């Protein structure tokens, strides 16, 4: 895919030193150095330096006006007694399991259903994929209209004779979190499907033929050929959904703002409201550190894979 | 003969079953979108009288006018484009430069630099929100669009460097050596040889980054305060507060907010899907 054209002016000089990688001159031209340093500087200003500050602020008490006051691990001690924090952490784990698990399983199922090139399959794939391009805010508003007390879902339940199930889905503490997960899933499944479709395409058809000859049924072929072959894609999907789950903010913020009574609060929304609405910047930073710690393992494994790939 | 026809019949049944299943799934997925489109064209009185889920009894384009003018969506959409387009161009330019240097030259700490840049992009944004908002205050650009452009570029660039690096690394060295022998400098190699060969990846990443930046909410509400400067995502939340339960206007606003990314998707569908897969580290 990368090489589209032959080099225009190939000189007849033989390529030097077989087997050794030779990439350009030993001494790095200043322009090349600048090519690395300018983007690095931009990222340092907007990411690395703020990240360092973020970790420091987690150890302080700060209202944003007077200078930050160092309190050591005080913020983390406070978390132990903070009921909202505990429920937000619980919801975040639930979100990881439900949103992550379901989007992986359903995304794989959709990919398996739509893997074969046949008439009409492009349309079906596009339909499942279309929500991926919507912003989570627009997605949230669409679903809010569905969830309203006089909204489409309740009207639908009424019309099929299940009127007793009518519900203020987003205003009820028992259903708010689940009602928020559904739109997030609606948007994520198409994305995961695309990743799995590419993975399925990479499986050698000869493996299926061989399994068929050996008398393997459809289920056995899935279990013993497809799934083992998808191992590397599974690792990608796992990283993507863990990172996406911990970042999930927009959809919750637009639908419930974490309410009612923190019943759909995630760590990400709690962090935002603590920092920018309650103006407790030190405690908010400490919450962000907790999110970072949760993501740390996945980030590391992602980087290790990237390291191997970068040869 | 008869065995042949049973096989044929079974194949037909399987095909019908596939279309039934996949078709039902597609309809389920498109239903919410159809609902918004229909709602955005109905009048308020119609919805109030018949409910959101009923068949439409009216047709009006007034909702779009209301969202566009009274709801401030026009200004918000312009803000979004002012932020998104420079962000995409600058981010990809910077990323292509860094990826070129890291993939085509044996720099010291090559891999460490690459992973450092990627690692920055993988950080949960929450850890950066407070320092970034304070940083933009210190720089005197808090509550201005350049602050949003800056943070979007800084946060995004690492990921694109990584993807483009993988792509440029696969271009054969001989092409570059031939140019070096002919006396081409790094700039000519970058501009004349490597960049044109990287076009497919750049196209894919442009489509992808356009939607990501355009759809962002979190960075916008972190570095911006005034309603007049908010991009379309934040304005949509504002619209929801301004037109409480006027679902016709809110639906029209959602359609306006989604239209640019849907257009990019439909136009560059192939690039888009390729981009998502490029981004996945295998």
UniProtKB/TrEMBL annotation, chain B:
Membrane topology according to the record: Multi-pass membrane protein
Keywords, comma-separated and alphabetical: Cell membrane, Membrane, Transmembrane, Transmembrane helix, Transport
Chief location bin: membrane
Protein name: Carbohydrate ABC transporter permease
Domain of life the protein comes from: Bacteria
Locations listed in the record: Cell membrane
CDD domains: TM_PBP2 (cd06261)
Sequence intervals crossing the membrane: 20-41, 77-101, 113-133, 145-167, 201-224, 244-266
Family: Belongs to the binding-protein-dependent transport system permease family.
ABC transmembrane type-1 domain mapped to chain residues: 77-268
InterPro entries registered for this protein in UniProt: MetI-like, MetI-like_sf
């Amino acid at each position: 895919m990368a090489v589209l054209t032959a080099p225009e002016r190939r000189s007849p000089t033989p390529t030097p030193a077989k087997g050794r990688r030779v990439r350009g001159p030993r001494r790095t031209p200043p322009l090349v150095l600048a090519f690395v340093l300018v983007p690095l500087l931009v990222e340092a200003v907007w990411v690395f330096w703020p990240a360092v500050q973020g970790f420091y602020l987690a150890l302080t008490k700060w209202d944003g006006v007077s200078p930050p006051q160092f309190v050591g691990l005080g913020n983390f001690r406070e978390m132990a007694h903070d009921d909202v924090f505990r429920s937000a952490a619980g919801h975040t784990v639930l979100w990881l399991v439900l949103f992550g698990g379901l989007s992986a399983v359903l995304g794989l199922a959709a990919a398996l259903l739509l893997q074969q090139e046949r008439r009409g399959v492009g349309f079906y794939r596009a339909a499942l994929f279309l929500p991926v391009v919507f912003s989570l805010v627009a997605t949230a508003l669409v679903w809010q209209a569905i969830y309203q007390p006089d909204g489409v879902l309740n009207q639908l339940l009424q019309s099929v004779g299940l009127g007793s199930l009518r519900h203020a889905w987003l205003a009820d503490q028992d259903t708010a979190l689940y009602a928020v997960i559904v739109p997030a899933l609606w948007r994520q499944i198409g994305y995961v499907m695309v990743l799995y479709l590419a993975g399925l395409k990479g499986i050698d058809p000869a493996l299926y033929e061989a399994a068929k000859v050996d008398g393997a049924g459809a289920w056995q072929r899935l279990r013993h050929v497809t799934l083992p072959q998808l191992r590397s894609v599974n690792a990608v999907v796992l990283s993507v959904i863990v990172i996406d789950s911990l970042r999930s903010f927009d959809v919750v913020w637009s639908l419930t703002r974490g309410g009612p009574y923190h019943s759909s609060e995630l760590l990400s929304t709690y962090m935002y409201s603590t920092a920018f609405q309650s103006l407790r910047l030190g405690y908010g930073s400490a919450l962000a550190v907790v999110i970072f710690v949760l993501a740390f393992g996945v980030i590391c494994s992602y980087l290790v894979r990237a390291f191997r790939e970068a040869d | 003969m008869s065995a042949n026809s049973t096989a044929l019949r079974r194949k037909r049944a399987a095909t019908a079953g596939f279309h039934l299943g996949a078709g039902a799934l597609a309809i389920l997925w498109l239903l919410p979108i159809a609902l918004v489109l229909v709602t955005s064209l109905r009048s308020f009185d119609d919805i109030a009288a018949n409910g959101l889920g009923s068949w439409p009894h009216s047709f009006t384009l007034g909702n779009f006018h209301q969202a566009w003018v009274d709801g401030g969506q026009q200004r918000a959409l312009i803000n979004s484009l002012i932020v998104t387009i420079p962000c995409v161009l600058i981010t990809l330019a910077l990323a292509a430069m860094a990826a070129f240097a890291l993939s085509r030259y044996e720099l010291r700490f090559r891999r460490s630099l690459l992973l450092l840049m990627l690692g920055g992009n993988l950080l949960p944004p929450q850890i950066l929100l407070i320092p970034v908002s304070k940083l933009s205050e210190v720089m005197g650009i808090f509550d201005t669009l350049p602050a949003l452009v800056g943070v979007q570029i800084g946060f995004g660039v690492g990921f694109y460097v990584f993807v483009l690096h993988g792509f440029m690394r696969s271009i054969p060295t001989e092409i570059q050596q031939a140019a070096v022998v002919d006396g081409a400098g790094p700039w000519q190699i970058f501009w004349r040889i490597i960049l044109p060969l990287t076009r497919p990846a750049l196209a894919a990443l442009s489509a992808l980054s356009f939607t990501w930046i355009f759809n962002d909410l979190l960075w916008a509400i972190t570095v911006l305060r005034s309603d007049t400067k908010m991009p379309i995502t934040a304005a949509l939340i504002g619209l929801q507060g301004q037109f409480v339960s006027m679902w016709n206007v809110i639906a029209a606003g959602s359609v306006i907010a989604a239209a640019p990314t849907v257009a990019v998707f439909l136009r560059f569908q192939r690039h888009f899907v390729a981009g998502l897969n490029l981004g996945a580290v295998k």
